[in-house]
Each structure stands twice: as C-alpha cells, then as structure tokens.
C-alpha cells in the first residue's frame, strides 16, 4: 500500500509592506475665504464699543465635501491687548475646544487656534470668544486674522470686524430722563452683567449676563438728572418692577431680599424702614414705596436722587426676559400725579461653563436631500449633541429635540435657520435650550471605490475579481474581505468602510499565500513480471495521481519535497522483504537509493510563479522517478507491497 503524508516546517516570515505616498495635489486645503461655499469668517458683535462693554468674537468655519483642512493648521486673531482684557478672555466654547488647541498670548496680542485633527468633508462650526473692552475712549484698534497652513504659507481670512472703536460716553449710566434703568446693581457694581448686546432685540436695549448664576440684576435711577419734583410729605415715589417671560416659560422670581435702595445724593444705603415693599401681585412683580430718608417728614426736594437695584432668578437661560421699570408720583390718600416707564431686555450669554444651568453643545446640521426620514430624523439630529450638568452629570439622554416641519423640507434644498431646537432640564429645574440651522444639500455622484485583493508581491490574486463600489457623495460604503483558498488575509485596509467623496479611492486587501501540498499518488504500480534469473530493473508503470504542489507565497520562496520509504516491499503471504531495492532517479539522471526511513530529496524548488507544479508528470514517459532494482536470487514468486511517505518542507535557501 502506498500512502501520502504532508509535513511542513515553518520558518519566521518577515514582511515589508510599502504603500504609495499620497500625491500632494490630492490634499486640498480649504480656501481661507468667507464665501458661502467654504472658508473661515471672523466677526465681532459690533465695531463700536463702550469701555467696559462686552466684546464677543465669532469664528465661523465652513468646509465642503472634497476639501480637507489638515491637522496643524492655525487661525491667528491679532487683537491688541490694550484694547481687550486678555486676563478675562473666555475661550471655553466647546465648539472650538473640541477642534482646536487654543493659545492666548497676551504679550503678542494674539489668540491662536491650532487644529487638533483633520477636517474632512462637510463641517459647519460656529464658536465664540468673549472678553471686555479696556481700550481708551476715542481710540480705534486694528484687528487682524490669518490662516496658516502646516507648510507655513499664510492667507488672510474673511475679517468682517477689522477694528475696535472705543466711543466716548457720558458717565455710566447716562440719564435718559426722569428715570434711567440699566443692568447690574449700580454704576460701579455690574454683578454678573457682562455687557450690552448688539444689536437691540425687539427695539429694546438688551444686557448680557453670565451663566455662572441663575440671576440677572437691574437698577433704576429716580430723578437721574437731579432736577426733578419737590414732593411734600403727602406724596411719595412708588417704583414698580415687572419681569415678563414667554407663556411657556416658568415665571421669573424677583428676589425682594436683594433690593438695595441708595440715596444717590449722599451715596448712603437707605434703611429699609424708609420704604415698603409689596409683592402681592405675583412672583414676577413687586413695588417699592419710598419717601426721603433725610427729612423727618419724608418730604422730597427737587435735587433728591435715588437708585433702586434688584435681582431676578430664572430657570431658563436661553430666552430673552423683558423688564419694565415704572415710577409713579403718588399721594398718601391715593391717586397719582406722574408716571414714568423704562423698558429693558435681559438675557444670558450662551458662552462659557455654568454650574447652575445644563451645559449643552450643539452644531448646525447638513443633510443630503432625502436623507432624513421619519424613522431616523430624531437620531440624526441628536448625533454629536451633548449636555453636561455639574450635579446631574451626563444628560445627553435627557435632551429633547423639536424639529418642527423639517420633515416637510427634507427633500428641498435650502438653509433652514433656527429650524431645530434642543432643550434639556436638570434636576433643579434649570433649563438650557439652543437652536441650530439645518442645511439640505443635493447629492453628487461619488468617486468610484475600487476594491482589490493582492498578494505579498502586491499583485492581483489569480482568479479573484476586482470589485467596484458606487454611490453618492456622503453615502456610506462597506467593502468585504474574501475567503480565498490557499491564502490568508494579513492586512485589512483602514478605509474598508467609509463614505463616498468626490474623489476615486482604492481599497486594498492583502493576503499571505500558503504552501499547498495539493495531491500525491495513492498507488504506485511497478507491474507484474516473470521471476528472472538475473538482476532486473522494474520501472513505474502506473500511478493513480501525480505529486502536485502550489506555492502562493512570495516569489523566490523555497520549498523541498522529500520521499521516505517507511515499509520495505514485503511479500503478502510469506512476509519476506526485498530490502534496498527502491531508487529515485532525478531529472539529471542522478540515482539515489531509498533506504528504509532515510528520506531522499525529490525536488528542491525556488518559486517563480503561483501555478501548480507537477513533480511526477514525466516519471513514466521519460522513465524517471521511482524504480525497483532487484538482484537475482533475492525475490520469490508473490505479491509485494510497501509504504512511502511524501514530505513537503518550507525551506530557506542557502547563502
């Protein structure tokens, strides 16, 4: 019986994989311009400012499909440090910090934003930096902005606020009339007031307050010019303060314990015994009735000036509150002589961290026409929207989203401003909500994604087809690895999954080929012969299979086939053996005796192709390969059989 046995010796394998360098012209730097397609825009909340006023800078970065802004790119804002207080700059806006490392260089008068990761494809980022004007009144300061690529080249970006002009103002606050209302607790006590908002909202002056607390403050001056009415002891001032919020917002609470009444004529704080407080009309209203604290009978002369300051607590940091200050001149017996009213708006800045309100990060969204459906719209709108709270921690799961009629617009190209509102409420009832713009864009045909399957020589594997994937820009694609007989996957490409862009792309799977022992003879038949009285050589007459080897490894790999006689030819009935009769003749006519259990090299090969090699194809035709050389007198009549083992070795070439 002749049998087959496969054996491998495995040596360490060193692989060097070389991939082509991406041509520089495949990297497209986003143009530093401020048009509607892509670019970077800088603008401030105004061009004219009062000293001590708020200076809010907005950095808008818009990138489109096909454009890449590489890591290390820098945006530099050059703002004189004698114009803006660098020590109190707020650069904590998460829309910026998640993309940039931010350096504030007071000495150089610069704020530098260094990109932490590549920006690829459609991105629309808005971020704010807040500060306070400290420049000299009547002076104008230049503001510069540049974009620097990693290679050092610079471009001037779209600067819509190239100057800071500090205007001259009368002493703060100005007297608008008999009464004057402002923000803060007094001219020299801004409390959490940051600065006046530009522009006015609904034609009312609007003050911005820090989100560090849930309160804003207002003060009203009565007889601000000091040339007002002389009130006898039978008359008094009655001050009404009302804060109005939208119907769906929790009612503001005016804090009566915060009320401070100041006699501005003397600068003294008025003792509470000189005035009475009434808040029977609701939490968002109160009144203060006041007579002169300096005259025993309470009479007020024309030069008497008073200031009343009060704080209001609210639960929603994202809306505009309207405050109304009204002063009446009234009689003790009822009735009134005069009425004066002053209206202001109060709102919280959306910049910076708050320990009171939830901190929510949102971003404008861009979708292709038809991308949003009833099934996916909520999940898509909530992607990358986060909320953190000092007490409640991660509140992302608690964010509510109101997208209005966006589904009706999902197939219509356009920019839908303030289309989506996000809202989150923490355990103390404090609310943050923000709105975003949704951009619906058309889909373009994406570049073809070609999927290749190569060996370690970076050559296509025979019999394995290259595949192509097609889709629209922005659509996802997913390639697949293949199970290839005789090969093992050794490298899955980083871009096996991704999104179609407007550029063609290659996805390359690399495989390590194996050394395969494909087949070997099961029976080697030397024929039937008459017993001879002399020495005889018997050639192979028939074999049921050939010895087949296929090497799919790298070209110039080495392997070796060996044959070992594991059982001498033995007569079936008597058990008598014919020792030392099996020989192997190679293609060079060199003959080797195959002694029992002594392997003989049949073939030593350096791989030149990945085709199958037949080691025994010429044995019968050319009278090569295995032979039996039987000496006279050693054989008897009978049927002889033996066993041979074929060993395939992965070898290393000799130097």
Automatic annotation (TrEMBL):
The chain crosses the membrane at residues 9-29. InterPro entries: Ig-like_fold, MucBP_dom. Residues 449-512 form the MucBP domain. Keywords: Membrane, Repeat, Transmembrane, Transmembrane helix. Pfam families: MucBP. It comes from the Bacteria. This is MucBP domain-containing protein. It comes from Pseudolactococcus paracarnosus.
């Amino acid at each position: 019986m002749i049998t087959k046995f496969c054996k491998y010796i495995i040596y360490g394998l060193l692989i060097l994989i070389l991939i082509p360098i991406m041509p520089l012209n495949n990297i497209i730097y986003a143009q530093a311009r401020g048009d509607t397609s892509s670019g970077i825009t800088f603008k401030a909340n105004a061009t004219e400012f009062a000293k001590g006023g708020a200076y809010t800078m907005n950095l808008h970065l818009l990138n489109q499909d096909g454009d890449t802004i590489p890591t290390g790119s820098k945006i530099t804002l050059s703002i004189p440090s004698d114009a803006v207080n660098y020590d109190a700059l707020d650069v904590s806006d998460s829309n910026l910090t998640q993309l940039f490392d931010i350096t504030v260089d007071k000495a150089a008068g610069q704020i530098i934003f260094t990109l932490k990761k590549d920006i690829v494809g459609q991105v629309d980022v808005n971020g704010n930096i807040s500060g306070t004007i400290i420049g000299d009144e009547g002076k104008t300061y230049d503001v510069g902005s540049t974009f620097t690529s990693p290679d050092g080249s610079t471009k001037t970006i779209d600067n819509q606020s190239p100057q800071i002009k500090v205007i001259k103002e009368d002493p703060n606050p100005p007297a608008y009339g008999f009464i004057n209302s402002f923000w803060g607790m007094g001219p020299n006590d801004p409390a959490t007031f940051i600065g006046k908002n530009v522009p006015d909202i609904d034609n009312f002056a609007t003050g911005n307050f820090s989100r560090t607390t849930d309160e804003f403050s207002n003060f009203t001056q009565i007889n601000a010019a000091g040339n007002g009415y002389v009130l006898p002891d039978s008359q008094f001032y009655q001050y009404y303060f009302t804060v109005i919020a939208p119907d769906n917002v929790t009612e503001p609470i005016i804090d009566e314990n915060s009320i401070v009444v100041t006699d501005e004529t003397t600068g003294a704080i008025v003792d509470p015994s000189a005035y009475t407080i009434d808040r029977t009309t609701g939490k968002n209203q109160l009144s203060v009735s006041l007579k002169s604290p300096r005259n025993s009978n309470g009479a007020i002369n024309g030069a008497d000036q008073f200031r009343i300051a009060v704080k209001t607590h609210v639960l929603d940091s994202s809306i505009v509150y309207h405050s109304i200050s009204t002063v009446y001149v009234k009689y003790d017996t009822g009735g009134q002589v005069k009425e004066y009213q002053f209206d202001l708006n109060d709102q919280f800045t959306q910049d910076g961290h708050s320990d009171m309100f939830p901190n929510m990060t949102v971003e404008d969204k861009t979708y292709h026409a038809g991308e949003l459906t009833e099934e996916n719209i909520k999940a898509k709108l909530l992607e990358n929207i986060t909320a953190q709270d000092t007490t409640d921690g991660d509140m992302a799961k608690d964010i509510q989203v109101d997208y209005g009629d966006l589904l009706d617009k999902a197939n219509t190209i356009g920019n839908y401003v303030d289309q989506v509102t996000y809202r989150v409420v923490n355990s103390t009832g404090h609310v943050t909500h923000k709105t975003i713009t949704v951009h619906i864009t058309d889909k373009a045909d994406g570049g073809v994604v070609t999927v290749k399957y190569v060996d370690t020589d970076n050559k296509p594997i025979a019999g394995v087809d290259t595949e192509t994937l097609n889709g629209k820009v922005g659509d996802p694609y997913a390639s697949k690895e293949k199970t290839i007989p005789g090969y093992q996957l050794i490298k899955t490409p980083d871009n096996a999954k991704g999104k179609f862009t407007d550029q063609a792309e290659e996805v390359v799977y690399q495989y390590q080929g194996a050394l395969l022992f494909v087949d070997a003879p099961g029976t080697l038949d030397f024929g039937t012969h008459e017993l001879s009285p002399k020495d005889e050589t018997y050639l192979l007459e028939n074999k049921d299979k050939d010895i087949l080897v296929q090497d799919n490894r790298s070209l110039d790999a080495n392997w070796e086939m060996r044959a070992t006689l594991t059982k001498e030819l033995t007569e079936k009935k008597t058990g008598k053996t014919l020792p030392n009769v099996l020989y192997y003749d190679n293609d060079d006519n060199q003959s080797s005796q195959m002694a029992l259990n002594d392997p003989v090299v049949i073939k030593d090969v350096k791989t030149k192709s990945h085709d199958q090699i037949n080691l025994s194809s010429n044995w019968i035709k050319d009278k090569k390969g295995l032979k039996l050389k039987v000496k006279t007198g050693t054989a008897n009549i009978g049927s002889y059989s033996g066993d041979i083992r074929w060993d395939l070795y992965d070898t290393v070439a000799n130097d």
